[in-house]
Amino acid sequence: MLVAIFGLPGSGKTTFGKLLAHRLKGIHLNSDIVRSVLNLTSHYDPDSKDRVYEALFSEVRKQLERGKNVVVDATFHHRARRDQARELANQLEVPIFWIELRADEKEIRKRIALPRPDSEADFSVFQLIQAQMEPMEADHLILRSDLDSMDQMLDQATEYIGGNQTR
Asked: Do 112 and 9 touch, CB atoms closer than 8 A?
């Protein structure tokens, strides 16, 4: 199965994604780590984004083909990126589950002011992605990382995934 976690920078995608992957006995993949491996840190131009997502989806494909559950986190703020993930899942005939993480802007501002090991996104990057965010049209779970505990979010996610295995 493929679980795609999306949302704005600072919403808690990576922290949640790592824990969810552990709970699902799966692999966690992250666009910021791929960006770093490709030496594209601080590069958010269209070509750099294309390279990051291409490498990310290549690794997702490889892990899914090995039979692993994959939890991938990225902003997925453009519909075209979400379509790529959906098409990959369809090609490999694995279910895909979408989980959106949200948090109040005040909380996000506090979070991204602190150093984070996997992301260099600052508030200006947050604002840029927020302005470009295209609405999600597919059925998905929305979690509030500023209101619920990590355990509550993990429980909601596993219930959502377990109750929707036919997708």
From this structure: yes
